[in-house]
Each structure stands twice: as C-alpha cells, then as structure tokens.
Amino acid sequence: MSFLPGGAVPQAQPVARSTRANPLLADAVLVKKGQRRLYLLHHGKPFRTYRVSLGIDPVGHKERRGDNRTPEGHYLIDWRNPNSRFHRSLHISYPNEQDRLYAARQGWDPGGMIMIHGQPHGRGPGAVRDLIAYKDWTEGCIAVSNLAIDEIWRFVPNGTPIEIRP
Q1: How far does Cα 27 stand from its chain's mean position?
Q2: What residues does 92 pair with on adjacent strands?
Q3: What is the helix (H) or strand (E) element at residue 109, kind and residue range?
Q4: Is the pTM of the predicted complex or chain greater than 0.70?
Q5: For the chain, the helix, strand and coil percentages under 3-state DSSP, each to the nearest 5
C-alpha cells in the first residue's frame, strides 16, 4: 500500500464514465465485417457496439473503384461531413499508401470516399430498419442507423485510428 504525504491513503479512482456533458471519447474504432459490428474502444475496451451494413460485395478487401467492397486494414477517421447525402458521415482514410501501391501495380484506380455514415436522407423508418438489419447495400462504406451515427459523431474525434477486419 502506498501513502501520500502526511500519511493519507490514496483513494481509488473511479472508472471514467460517459455523460452528455463529458462524453467518453473513443481512442480507436474496430469494425468486424464478418460480424457486421462496429466497436468504439477506450483503452482497448469496447464501450459502444453498433450493427453495420457494408458494401454490396462485402467479402475481401477493397482493391479498386467500383468493386463495392469495404476496405480491410488500418486507417484513420480524418474528417467529417455534417452535410453529406446521408445523415452525417465520417471519412475513413482509405486508400492508404499500401492500397495505392497495390492498385498502381494492377493499373487500377483504388477508389476512395469511404465513410461511416447514417441513412440516406428521405428514407422512412421502416425502410431504414430493413436496410440496417438485413442487407449490405453501400458502395463500400460502413452504414449505421441515424441514431448510431449521431453517437459515433459525438464519441469519435478526427484522427482516431480505425481497424477494419474481415
């Protein structure tokens, strides 16, 4: 046991808790494509989990523009768009240098503009529920419900690393 000056015993520190006034920020994002899950992590532990929809052809790593795949690998959340054609969007830094080099060797355009985003504007609640629960429908992006993107927007600062696993 350690003592503070004057013989005081240190008090146990409470675990950080998220409140509206002081949200717990993610220091990493993890996506498991096979499970259709996105995890917000703080010190390596998930504190939020969301159901996701992926690209129409979800198996495998995105290689080129138009392949409708969601990339796999290590990236950053590098900027956000509050006025996108979807309810909010966070940009994923795909393609990284490795992706660009691979595509160049193949003579392909690697594509880009991969986002985590909400639902398209103008969809009714039933249609949104059906898209999220049952279908991969994006061109390679990671789609979540509008409620989920509102939380992700609040908890994930620009510069946060994201790992996308198969």
Answers
A1: 12
A2: 77
A3: none
A4: yes
A5: 20, 30, 50
| 143 in Cβ contact with 131 (< 8 Å) | yes
Pair of tokens at residue 63: 């290689």
CB-based contacts of 98: which residues, under 8 Å, 6+ apart?
A: 73
Domain ranges of the chain: 25-165
Q: What is the pLDDT of residues 22-56, one digit of tens each?
A: 568 999 999 999 999 999 999 999 999 999 999 99
Residue 160 Cα distances to 55, 64, 73, angstroms: 22, 24, 14
Q: Is the peptide bond before 95 cis (omega within 30 degrees of 0)?
A: yes
Task: Name residue, tokens 């909010």.
Answer: 88
What gap in Å lies between CA 115 and CA 94, rounded to an integer? Answer: 9
- CATH (one of 3.60.15.10, 3.30.700.20, 2.40.440.10, 3.30.200.20) for 25-165: 2.40.440.10
The answer to whether 87 and 119 have CB atoms below 8 angstroms apart is yes
The span from the CA of 154 to the CA of 156, in Å, is: 6
